[in-house]
């Protein structure tokens, strides 16, 4: 085993607040390993919108208390293995993981949350498509099992999740209606598989709800994938067809407020609120989605668009860009 330093670089959330609370340190102790964990030396860490919810206080901090190191995924090499090792990892294995504590040089991760990166897939693409790719697959396979011939609406279609959803749906023989803010984002969503695209930030013309209804001959769509939340949740119910479904999976504009369930009765609608973690509880489930995504990347069937790779110390700038709607695709931190 190569010798490990005692401290590392990391980004801490000392208290809840805006991106300015993120604190860069070079003297964070290397995390201790418990039995069944591996220590990963991260090469890249993935940035996800959920990191901003942990920072702002919309969600309780990972691990239950502050200060905390946020970051749900990383790619790098195994630096140390603790205790029994039933999955047969070796020091030096190139891996991608999903857990917590990713905005750091080293992360202690339960071994069953770690997946080997196949040859032919780069660290950037492995982590760039990992959490989001698995989420996108779980949405189209389990949250709403998409059928050939369906019409599906994807909000924020040029975002990290949006581009992956558009690409997956393109291969499923469905009509994809995407929404995106501004002409450049609209063009990108179209390139990635949206059949129709609506600029929901346009200041004139019909509303996005009116446009979706027009595109579907007044019927509405079979399913809406809504990760925008507060600004779109109600319109999403309006454009779902009779017996259709709205899958809420995020809060980019803020949380969906409590509402009267009677709203669903006018069209016998179904709604769902999903989180990836509940689709990948067992090792078998994690391997199903992880290998599904990595195989698609390796085969060139899922293109991971990296918006920008930020140095670890610039994590606050990265989060500001994400929250400020200035990004398309995936943001990474270079550790
Ligand atoms: N449930 C899960 O397990 C899971 C997993 C991964 C991600 N998610 C969710 O998926 C959603 C997308 O995540 P992402 O990381 O891929 O982000 P993203 O889509 O790349 O970025 C968010 C996008 O949302 C749109 N948006 C609309 N209103 C906004 C507002 N008021 N503030 C900020 N953005 C706004 C913007 O696109 P336009 O400019 O085009 O409107 C923005 O670029 C998030 O809600 C995230 O929490 C959920």
UniProtKB/TrEMBL annotation:
Q: Which CDD domains match?
A: QOR2
The leader peptide range reads none
Query: What PANTHER family does UniProt report for this protein, alphabetically?
Result: QUINONE OXIDOREDUCTASE PIG3-RELATED, QUINONE OXIDOREDUCTASE-RELATED
What residue stretches are annotated with the Enoyl reductase (ER) domain?
Answer: 17-333
Protein's name according to its UniProt entry: Probable quinone oxidoreductase
Q: Which SMART domains match?
A: PKS_ER
Top-level division of the source organism's lineage: Eukaryota
One GO MF term attached to the UniProt entry: NADPH binding
Query: Which organism does this sequence originate in?
Result: Capronia coronata CBS 617.96
One short Pfam name that applies is ADH_zinc_N
InterPro entries noted in UniProt: ADH-like_C, ADH-like_N, ER, GroES-like_sf, NAD(P)-bd_dom_sf, QOR-like, Quin_OxRdtase/zeta-crystal_CS
Instruction: Provide this UniProt record's keywords sorted from A to Z.
Output: NADP, Oxidoreductase
GO terms for cellular component: cytosol
